[in-house]
From TrEMBL:
Required for the transposition of the insertion element. Pfam families: Transposase_mut. One of its GO terms (molecular function) is DNA binding. Keywords: DNA recombination, DNA-binding, Transposable element, Transposition. InterPro entries: Transposase_mutator. GO terms for biological process: DNA transposition. It comes from the Bacteria. This is Mutator family transposase. The lineage of its organism: Bacteria, Bacillati, Bacillota, Negativicutes, Selenomonadales.
Amino acid sequence: MAYQNSTVSFEKMLLKFIADEDPMQSMLKWLCERLMETEVENKLCAEKSERNNERQGYRSGYRVRRFDTRMGTIYLMVPKIRNGGYIPFFVETKRRSEAALMNVIQEAYINGVSTRKIDKLTKTLGIESISRSQVSAITKDLNQHVFCQVKIPKMSVIIPFFRTGKFPVLSGSF
């Protein structure tokens, strides 16, 4: 759906984006917000402030939502719907980051990077902050997938103690 009421020319928009500190990030933010507006209009079967008989619901303002991308953290103005709620199609439920960023965090975890160092890694990628609990939640799915695939039988492990010369046998599952 094209914006018929848009009076801003393409050149003016580009000049505005170029003047920003991070032009690519501001273009991404603009694009995401336009996608959300279009999606809400389609869901409600009416444009903003339009009255018609086919309308499926009403808007209820906006809320700010943090969205972490490979290009850095952006804050989106997400439209609110009075009944039923709205989550943009490009944002997974209860996740603030895109899938590619999740893959980077999981790959770092697989390679043995600690959760504290992952926070530093994400800061270098332009993400404001990620808590240890968020890293653990991201890698939880990964752990479940790995341990479901690998079935390790219970076995006895012999651990030598060279000082005493004794070799105790420990039983357990690993």
